[in-house]
Amino acid sequence: MSTTTTLPAWQLSDRDLTTRLLTTQRQQNVAYAAQLETIRELESRGAVPEGYSSTAAYLATILHVTPREARSRLAQANGTLPLTWKALTAGEITAQHAAVIAEFLADAPRWLTPEDYTVAEDTLVTLAVQANPGTVRRVATRLKIYWDNDPSEMPGADSSADDSPSPDSDHGLDPDSVPGSGPDSSSGPDSGSGPDSSARPWREFRWHWTRTGRFRFTGNVDHETGTLIEQLLVPLAAPDPASAPGTPDPRTPAERHGDAIAAIVDLAARAPDLPSKAGERAVATVTVSLETLQSTAKAVFTDDESVLPASHLRRILCDAKVYPAVLGTEGQVLDLGRSARTATNAQRRALAIRDRGCTFPGCDRSPKWTTPHHVVHWANGGATDLDNLASCCERHHRLLHHSGWHIVIRDGAVYWIPPSILDPEQKPLRNTAHNPPPAPLRTAVPAVSSTPPRPRRAS
Predict the structure, then answer these.
(1) Which member of 78, 171, 316, 332 has the lowest number of beta carbons within 10 Å of its beta carbon?
(2) Is residue 135 part of a domain?
(3) Which backbone phi and psi does 324 adopt, to 5 degrees?
(4) CB atoms within 10 A of CB 10
């Protein structure tokens, strides 16, 4: 027996802690599949003791779960989802993944062929292996919308199918994001309702740099602007779905909103109509030797005498408006900015078509939230060509530069290589969250008797 499963957690190394997390999660997934198999056998035998109104009521009582959860597990146990069952039994997906897939496919249109049904299940299971249940639910909703707009083209389509969207509790709202619930929800002097409020609403923004290099700011804006900001913050600041049972997003509401602000600013900084200064967009000049840029130096200095970690500089150089003044050993200027260092608008459009958004496995951020990343870094001679660029959102771009992940491009497709601590074999992973919905087959219309198998709803 491995020492990672026998030693107490405090005796494990950092690497072994991660190994145990992955191992125990897989064990939980396999155990859940075994429980569903037991529930199926219990139901088929009719082995529920007297005194219980149904199998679901019996499960709720003895497992100490809610009636809704008991009904959900019973429906999953009785369903016919071979691909989902295979992945769950292998420990590759979680109970939450299985519930989302079962709930979605239970409401699939009746006009789908058995092949369509299998393709849809395969699409969701493939994504579930690399993404969290919230992303799987969003992709399933996108697939449902695609189906709901297609029956008019299908002969014999069932127009009585349920068109109501499946409930999506993964909205991520919390009391801190409810309108007017913030720590300073009071209005300004005119509250946006004075005689000149429509022409010139009252807004304030104050900022300063702290001694530790932090950018601190305060302010308030009118109601219309505040509403717009809230609409941007709420979806971006939603908690990340738990990667495993009992492991919620560790960020506080304030930290989530801070990350949301960073994503919004990152998007605005890349807008084509960004205001210019002295004929060009806002820039920063960083003076650094070529050796420092290519090495793992800890810090460099910007033109305003602030300190910037070299690893952060290498990330920023992917796409930010920074001119690197690269100096030789004698202090001579070797290169004051490379015109081809950043991707052109045409290349960005091509990346949007090729990558469809962030390429990190399981991320469903669209192209507008991404920046081009040089696979072979610019400082190391990497060209700004499509076969050396990959789309990354702000969060995963940072992860790429400051963790063990790295990227390879094969046959025009982007693959992420996980660090060995997550996968000792470091198998390349390709994001499937942006894949288009599978088109329904139109070769034949299934008769009533050939309706694809689907999970039965528990009574």
Answers:
(1) 332
(2) yes
(3) -85, 120
(4) 6
Strand-pair category, 307-309 with 299-302: antiparallel
> CA distances (Å), 454 to each of 46, 98, 393, in order?
21, 14, 37
Please work out, in degrees rounded to the nearest 5, the angle formed at the alpha carbon of residue 98 by the alpha carbons of 102 and 30.
140
Per-position b or e across 410-427, b if 16+ CB within 10 A of its CB: eeeebbbebeeeeeeeee
Q: How far apart are CA 113 and CA 109, in angstroms?
A: 10
Q: Which whole-number Å values give the CA distances from 64 to 33, 60, 380, 389, in the listed order? A: 18, 6, 58, 51
Q: Which residues pair with 217 in a beta bridge?
A: 207
Contacts of range 370-377, beta carbons closer than 8 Å, 24 or more positions apart: 371/266, 371/270, 371/318, 371/319, 371/397, 372/318, 372/319, 372/342, 372/343, 372/347, 372/348, 373/318, 373/319, 373/397, 373/400, 373/407, 374/318, 375/407, 375/408, 375/409, 377/314, 377/317
Q: What Å distances lie between residue 192 and 205, 206, 219, 226, 383, CA to CA?
A: 16, 19, 15, 11, 51
Q: How far is it, in rounded angstroms, from Cα 100 to Cα 126?
A: 13
User: Six-digit token pair at 273?
Assistant: 């109509």
Structural domain containing residue 13: 3-172
In this structure, the chain runs to a length of 459
pLDDT at 236: 83
Question: Cα separation of 379 and 327, whole Å?
Answer: 13
Q: Which residue has the tokens 């297609």?
A: 150
User: Which amino acid is present at 439?
Assistant: A
Contact 339, 299 (CB under 8 A): no
Its pTM stands at 0.54
**Token digits for 455?**
């999970």
pLDDT tier for residue 345 given thresholds of 50, 70 and 90 = confident
The b-or-e profile of 132-156 (16+ CB within 10 A means b, else e) is bbbbbbbbbeebbeebeebbeeeee
Residue 56: inside a domain, yes or no? Answer: yes
pLDDT digits (tens, 9 = 90+) for 27-52: 999 999 999 999 999 999 988 888 88
Residue 306's φ and ψ, nearest 5 degrees, are -90, 160
The number of domains in the chain is 1
Question: Does the structure show a pLDDT above 70 at 420?
Answer: yes
Q: How many CB atoms lie within 10 A of CB 396?
A: 23
Q: List the one residue out of 204, 237, 232 whose CA is nearest residue 218.
A: 204
For residue 247, tell me if it sits in a domain. Answer: no
Q: How far is 333 from 324, CA to CA, in rounded Å?
A: 10
Confidence of residue 97 (pLDDT cuts 50, 70, 90): very high
Is 332 within the bounds of a domain?
Answer: no
